[in-house]
Amino acid sequence: MGIISTKYLLQRARKEKWAVPAFNIHNAETIQAVLEACHERRSPVMLAGTPSTFKHISCPDMLALCRSYSERFQMPVILHLDHHEVYEDIVNKVNGGVRSAMIDGSHLPFEENIILVRRVTEYCHHMDCSVEAELGLLGGIEDDKDVDAAHSFLTDPQQAVAFVERTGIDSLAVAIGTAHGLYTQRPEIDFARLEKIGQLLSIPLVLHGGSGVPDEDVIQSIKLGIAKVNVGTELKIAFAGAVKAYFAENPDASDPRFYMRKGMDAMKEVVHHKITLCGSEGRLGLGDKQ
Ligand code: 13P
After folding, report:
1. Is 136 assigned to a binding site?
2. CA 249 to ligand 1 center in whole angstroms
3. Is 140 annotated as a binding residue?
4. Measured CA distances, 210 to 28, 167, 175 (Å)
5. So where does Zn(2+) 2 get bound (predicted)?
6. Is 84 in the pocket of ligand 1 (CB under 6 A)?
7. Is the pLDDT of residue 290 over 60?
């Protein structure tokens, strides 16, 4: 038990055409809700924290919680650094025990993105930490970043091959038409582009902006090489919605054990649904080692 890397798990998922769900978590309750659902379904899972999550709850506290839940649920826990951009920040967190990191240089020019990612990969691999990076730039709001549609761009398949070769990353986040946050209309996923990238690259591919992507599109993406599906916004909306409804019905309530539980249960429903979409049920323990 304890904190593990994702390298072999994601490789196995890609090979067998299912995906590991990665959920954005923010505090003890959201970690617990996600792990309860994954434990019930025997599903592997990645708990993803953005840089501002670790301002809300420190990385050592988060790691301590994950280790404790790992024992309690008798399952390895993957704490993943989502959209981290600073080398020193990743090094500090990896030194503290994190074993799965995304270095996001997608806003940088191609060569600068490669230099940054290569540097992070060299350090992380030496610490048995798996590395995800992004090529192309997703639109939408993630953490404190807002990328408008005019500045977002899709992943170029040939560039992706060079990027993976030159950086040595373990998984690649692709920009294929999804965006972070809520969609105002149905996202148009460029499946032809994803298929091409999937044919050229054998490493696991990552779908960001999983909230609001139609179920059939998630399933089709997994068939074409997506091995990790990121979901954040849908969980927050479910949690907050249930808490708001509870207070609407119980305006004088004040006990967090009651209103938090409502939020957690609503969040769990979303987690259960995403596990079904990812086909990750019953896969716990697969790929923890080579
Ligand atoms: P959503 O909030 O749109 O689900 O995106 C989550 C994500 O991609 C985290 O990296």
Report:
1. no
2. 31
3. no
4. 23, 25, 12
5. 104, 134
6. no
7. no
- The pLDDT tens digits for 13-54 are 999 999 999 999 999 999 999 999 999 999 999 999 999 999
Domains and CATH numbers, the chain: 6-278 (3.20.20.70)
Residue type, 19: A
Give how far the C-alpha of residue 21 lies from the chain's centroid of Cα atoms, to the nearest Å. Answer: 7
Query: Which H or E element spans position 68?
Result: helix 59-73
Closest to 35 in 3D by CA, of 19, 50, 52, 47: 47
Distance of CA 219 to the CA centre of its chain: 17
DSSP letter for each residue of the chain: --B--SHHHHHHHHHHT--EEEEE--SHHHHHHHHHHHHHHT---EEEE-TTHHHHS-HHHHHHHHHHHHHHHTS-BEEEEEEE--HHHHHHHHHHT--EEEE--TTS-HHHHHHHHHHHHHHHHHTT-EEEEEESB-EEEETTEEE-TTT-BPPPHHHHHHHHHHH--SEEEE-SS-EES--SS-----HHHHHHHHHH--S-EEE---TT--HHHHHHHHHTTEEEEEE-HHHHHHHHHHHHHHHHH-TT---HHHHHHHHHHHHHHHHHHHHHHHT-TT-TTTTS--
Place of tokens 């990121």: 230
Q: Does residue 263 have its Cβ closer than 6 Å to ligand 1?
A: no
Other beta carbons less than 10 A from residue 14's beta carbon: 23
What's the pTM? 0.95
Cα 143 from Cα 164, distance rounded (Å): 26
> Is 171 known as a binding-site position?
no
Distances (CA, A) of 78 to 108, 114, 160, 188: 27, 25, 26, 31
pLDDT over threshold 70, residue 253:
yes
Q: What is the pLDDT of residues 134-158, one digit of tens each?
A: 998 787 777 777 777 666 789 999 9
Task: State yes or no: is 82 an active-site residue.
Answer: yes
